[in-house]
């Protein structure tokens, strides 16, 4: 494990809090706000997530970073800055003002529809997808479908945490996953 990944994992273990029965009974919500409030920990985590958009020599190998609503925005925008490339938001239905592609999917506790502007990524673009948690994989799979509908390629996904007891990796198939911590 690299020093950056180890430091990011230590920050997550120290600063991410469990909130029981939120947003519904039986759900354990992972509160990342203490992590976001700690400048050094947040910077360490962003650099670790950005590594998913670089090759072994540190060269940037993606053209855009897509962040999934809502906590993915908080992480993906600074990852894009760290990589020196653009950020594109993947939003809940009805939040984007221009023509979109849309995909509906099941969540671990409900259903959702995500949208992406039709021109957010160009054909041939390689896109790093960033979110806070990989759970069932539905959000990542839907985002990948949106990216591919634009003619681009989903290069990889980077997440703070993976819920290892849920089938996220099975759902997203052969997509490369960088996770900073499995719970």
From TrEMBL:
Catalyzes a salvage reaction resulting in the formation of AMP, that is energically less costly than de novo synthesis. Homodimer. Pathway: Purine metabolism; AMP biosynthesis via salvage pathway; AMP from adenine: step 1/1. It comes from the Bacteria. The keyword Cytoplasm applies. This is Adenine phosphoribosyltransferase. It comes from Nocardioides ginsengisegetis. Keywords: Cytoplasm, Glycosyltransferase, Purine salvage, Transferase. One of its GO terms (biological process) is adenine salvage. The lineage of its organism: Bacteria, Bacillati, Actinomycetota, Actinomycetes, Propionibacteriales. It holds the Pfam family Pribosyltran. InterPro entries: Ade_phspho_trans (IPR005764), PRTase-like (IPR029057), PRTase_dom (IPR000836), UPRTase/APRTase (IPR050054). Its EC number is 2.4.2.7. GO terms for molecular function: adenine binding; adenine phosphoribosyltransferase activity; AMP binding.
């Amino acid at each position: 494990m690299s020093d950056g990944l180890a430091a990011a994992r230590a920050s997550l273990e120290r600063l991410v809090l469990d909130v029981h029965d939120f947003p519904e009974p039986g759900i354990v919500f992972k509160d990342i706000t203490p992590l976001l409030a700690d400048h050094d920990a947040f910077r360490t985590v962003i650099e670790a997530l950005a590594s998913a958009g670089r090759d072994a020599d540190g060269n940037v190998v993606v053209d855009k970073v897509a962040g999934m609503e809502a906590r993915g925005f908080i992480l993906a925008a600074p990852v894009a800055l760290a990589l020196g490339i653009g950020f594109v938001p993947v939003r809940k239905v009805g939040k984007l003002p221009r023509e979109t592609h849309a995909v509906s999917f099941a969540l671990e506790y409900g259903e959702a529809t995500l949208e992406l502007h039709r021109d957010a990524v160009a054909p041939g673009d390689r896109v790093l997808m960033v979110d806070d948690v990989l759970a069932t994989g539905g959000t990542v799979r839907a985002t990948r479908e949106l990216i591919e509908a634009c003619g681009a390629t989903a290069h990889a996904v980077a997440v703070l945490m993976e819920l290892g007891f849920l089938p996220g990796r099975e759902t997203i198939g052969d997509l490369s996953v960088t996770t900073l911590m499995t719970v």
